[in-house]
Amino acid sequence: MKIGIDARLYGTAHGGIGRYTQELIRNFTTIDSATRGYVFFVYSKDDEQQLRADISAHIESRVRFVLAPYRCYTIAEQIFMPALIARAKVDVMHFPHFNVPLVYNKPYVVTIHDLIIHHFPDERATTLPKWLYKIKLWGYKKVMRHAVEKARAIIAPSEFGKQDLLRFYNIPEDKIYVIYEGVSELQITNHKSQINGNTDHQKSKIQLKTKNLLPYLLYVGSFYPHKNIERLIDAFDILRAKYNLDINLALVGKKDYFQQQIKKYITTNYKLQTTNCIFYDYASDDELAELYQNSALYIFPSLYEGFGLPPLEAMSFGVPVVASNASCIPEILGDAALYFNPENAEDIATKIHMLYTNITLQNQLREKGFAQMKKYSWDKMAQETLPILELPPVQTPAPR
Fold first, then answer.
1. Which residue ranges does the record assign to the Glycosyl transferase family domain (predicted)?
2. Domain 2-182+378-390 falls under CATH 3.40.50.2000
């Protein structure tokens, strides 16, 4: 059997989907002792080189790389990917994201991480003009419907995600497989830190102290509107003003338009100093490890998630977690987090203050966090995913 995988979003530079794709391929090639062949569709030669370095040596002879230099969510992807896949003669494709070409009707499995745009069709979540965003939204819904309805099987990373799919689409329930993601083992190695522009690894922690940034609350992720960072800023101001809490906030995520909007929100609405809020741009795995390890608490304020890796990564470092009670987050974190109403800045601030000032509660959540994060394994995820690629097709009922 020859399995094709769309690996154009391979690597942590592409966020959660990039890490999912990376761990999927790494673990597939580690556990597969059969005679399956693999075709990886990569965006660039650099990506191919990185992927070659990551896969297990025992499977190299059964792997083929195909250059697919087409950006996701583009017309080029829609036009050229189907022919490229056809020439590779794969038996089944795995698309780790919803962007399956509309004319692709060969057997495939798709992972639907979330339905964020269904819930938040927000023009603030784009840099496009209003008219163009409406076209993009129309295209997204059309591509998503095709991906879901024509798939041989759908993988959802949580039970919440499965029920969300059933809410929006008339598809058989047994076509959807809930497969939890894993927690990556992040470690500190030599690196060049970006904290406040610093480029010396040895000085990164010291600089946090000399800049009075320790202790700090930590957030890791994007700055899209559904991530609820504005309300986290509101809560942070309450912590400092109402509770007189001498603590700081580190926001780790890609430097882009949405990060700039958060910076603008801070300067427009508050008198917070730059030494109180630190924006740490894209962080490599070892930089993330250091940031997690030195944080006082991890804060996860999101309004919607399909799974939610960062709080589990924080738990792996023994960092107590304060999190939103929305979407799948309680399902994934269980009783290992203190929850707040993400739409109420006062409640966010109250729960952060409660945990930060209660050492006993911190220790309890720290121990529960270690146990909770051990429930999730990339190896187990791959073990459960591989057989799904060999399933026979499931018939889709006629439209209502």
1. 207-369
2. yes
- For 222, other C-beta atoms within 10 Å of its C-beta total 17
Q: What is the pLDDT of residues 17-54, one digit of tens each?
A: 999 999 999 998 888 877 789 999 999 999 999 999 98
User: What does the pLDDT look like over 329-376, one tens digit per residue?
Assistant: 999 999 999 999 999 999 999 999 999 999 999 999 999 999 999 999
297-300 β-sheet, strand order? 277-280, 248-252, 216-220, 297-300, 321-324, 337-340
Neighbours of 311 (CB within 10 A): 29
Q: Which long-range contacts (CB under 8 A, 24 or more apart) does 90-93 make?
A: 90/2, 90/3, 90/4, 90/39, 91/1, 91/2, 91/3, 92/1, 92/3, 92/4, 92/152, 92/389, 92/390, 93/3, 93/4, 93/5, 93/6
Strands, DSSP E only, in the chain? 2-6, 37-42, 63-67, 92-95, 108-111, 153-156, 176-178, 216-220, 248-252, 277-280, 297-300, 321-324, 337-340
How many angstroms separate the CA atoms of 309 and 373, rounded?
10
94 neighbors 5 (Cβ within 8 angstroms): yes
Question: How large a percentage of the chain has pLDDT more than 70?
Answer: 88
Q: Tell whether the model's pLDDT for residue 8 goes beyond 80.
A: yes
Q: What is the pLDDT of residue 192?
A: 42
Region(s) of the chain under CATH 3.40.50.2000? 2-182+378-390, 195-373
Residue 108, beta-bridge partner list = 93
Q: Which two tokens stand for residue 59?
A: 């499977």
Among 120, 119, 171, residue whose Cα is nearest residue 147 = 171
Helix (H, G, I), strand (E, B) or coil at 220: strand
Q: How many CA atoms lie within 13 A of 176 on its CB side?
A: 24
pLDDT band at 391; cut points 50, 70, 90: confident
> Can you say whether the dihedral through the CA atoms of 399, 142, 156, 223 is positive or negative?
negative
Per CATH, the homologous superfamily of domain 195-373 is Glycogen Phosphorylase B; (3.40.50.2000)
C-beta separation of 147 from 115 below 8 A: no
Phi, psi of 234 (to 5 degrees): -60, -45
Neighbours of 397 (CB within 10 A): 9
Collect all residues with Cβ–Cβ distance below 8 Å to 288 and sequence separation of at least 6: 186, 220, 252, 313
Write out the two tokens for 151: 């798939």
- CA–CA distance from 225 to each of 64, 119, 378 (Å)? 39, 12, 29
Give the three-class secondary structure for 378. Answer: helix
